Amino acid sequence: MIEIQKIHKYYTTAFNKLHVLKGINLSIKEGEFVSIMGSSGSGKSTLLNILGILDEYDQGNYFLDGDLIKGMSQTKAALLRNQKIGFVFQSFNLLPFKTAKENIALPLYYQKIPREDRQQIAMQYLERVGLKEWADHYPNQMSGGQQQRVAIARALISKPKVILADEPTGALDSVTSKEVMNLFKEFNDEGIAFVIVTHEREVADKTSRCIKVKDGIIET
Amino acid sequence: MFDYDKWQEIFESIKRHKLRTALTAFGVFWGIFMLVLLLGAGQGLSNGIKFQFSDEAINSIWLNPGRTSIPYNGIKEGKLIKLDNSDFNYIQEQYENVDQITGRLFLSGDKTVRYNNTTLSFTLQCIHPAYKTVENIIITKGRFLNDNDLEDVKKVCVIGRIVKTKLFGNEDPIGKEILIDNIIYLVVGEFYDTGGEWMMKNILIPITTAQKVYAGTNRLHRIVFTTEGLTTEGMAALQSRVLSDFSKRKNFDPKDRRAFRAFNNSEDFEELQSMIAAINGIIWLVGIFSIIAGVIGVSNIMLIIVKDRTKEIGIRKAMGATPLSIVSMIIQESILITALAGYLGLACGVGLIALAKDVATEFWRNPEVHLGVAVIATLVLIIAGALAGLLPALQAARINPVLAMKSD
After folding, report:
1. Contact of A24 with A47, CB cutoff 8 Å
2. Most A-contacting residue of B9, B316, B319 (CB-CB within 10 A), to test interface
3. pLDDT tens-place string over residues B204-247
4. pLDDT digits (tens, 9 = 90+) for B282-324
5. Nearest Cβ partner of A54 from B322, B323, B401?
6. Touching check for A9 and chain B: CB below 8 Å?
7. What's the pTM value of the predicted model, to 2 decimals?
8. Residue A44 phi/psi, 5° resolution?
9. Distance CA A3, CA A26 (A)
10. Is A94 helix (H, G, I), strand (E, B) or coil?
11. Across-strand partners of B67?
């Protein structure tokens, strides 16, 4: 489903050109449960951003669900992100002035789904992540683990092909980290692929495949 | 078009920055408020000036004979120039652009006027029926003098409103007889005049009656006529033509201004009108600049708001917000602030002008804001709001979600 062929990525600064990704090949099948590991500066976050169509690459090809993602308009990228990709971030990235339910419903707003329906679907997902009673709470009234579960529900609500998680447990203690991973596994069993960037051994061990990135290439 | 969620977002954003939004809105409010006030004032000024002129038709030419001051054709200075009914007929026949024409005969002093037991003194004006048009007289009761009255030398009169009140009180004066210098006149009409109180203290009688009863001549002291289909230049040309014709007719030097004076006020009126237009132009200029200042304020605030919401916009983009949806969100917020504040300014301005409506002085009358101006102002506001939001919105659309989500 994800097919990456010889991808190169450079960052140009005022003084030099940084070669961040040096010809990465990667293939992720539908419903796979994958982790990406690597030290900071290895290029793993850049890789994830390219997978999420949040960043562009300089050479190579990236196919998502059969579509070539290259030199795409912002509008097209937004539509693909909305329909095929869910994001989970280390710092949750919930909107502070929206309730849990409203945060979860946000991707459906950009799918132009009517308000009533959105709320209803959001409630279903809140229930799935065990936060039904917290529907009308704001992020700052919730614990980190709860916030991350809201973020996971938000990532899942548009029924994406793949969830891209950037250090999803980075801001959580070990107990809640486990809960989050269990939740990931639960949804993975329903056929949604997961790509989890992490530097925690325990997290990577839970995945079925671990991809190690070092100095812009994949170690084998 | 009505998108509940989008508006909810906008209201939330405004609520989060109450003071900032209020200050910005005040800028726009003040701009529109001042524009409306200025426009109203301009209109008041222009109405006042036009009202001053409304008393006399602006297309009239006055002919006043006098005494020569320059010897001419062997006749010494000091000769009295006289007009009579034949000159009246001459003008009527000679010049094709003459529309309404009236002669005037001035009687010396006021006349005693009696009705029942009331005796007062009033001024008599001896006129032709065309006087009504020339002086913009408004008949409020009965009728004005007509050609029949003049032909039959009838003893009828039309009285001013003040004459009526003083002589008749609440009684209906039409069809009543009054004594003017012991001669019985029938009251046929009552009039109102915008020229002021003095005019309404007058009694108007047929000029032929006056010539017969009081003067015993066919003399006229003045001739006034209105013209039709002439420009200011055309009026001036006609006026000099009349002057040279009469200089031959009456044997005086056409350069002798004391012998025969001819004048019109269309030139003055035109000058005033262009002055009013200039004032209005300046008002619009000032008003538009004050609106621009307000709009720049809104634009500035929206830029800050976009900067504040960088992270939020990044998150929205990751969730699938298109650049267009971000742009429309920012622009609609801008339009909302501008339109609401501007509309409030418009309403306050119009309200204040409505309060000042009763104030009427010589050069200030009925200030008002036309509906068209209000509509244009509203459109300008919406466009201005959209423009104010455009730059910040485009900046918002360019935000890189990866960097945005890392920022605080």
Report:
1. yes
2. B319
3. 999 999 999 887 888 899 999 988 888 878 888 888 899 889 98
4. 888 887 887 788 888 888 888 888 888 899 999 999 999 999 9
5. B401
6. no
7. 0.67
8. -70, -35
9. 6
10. coil
11. B80
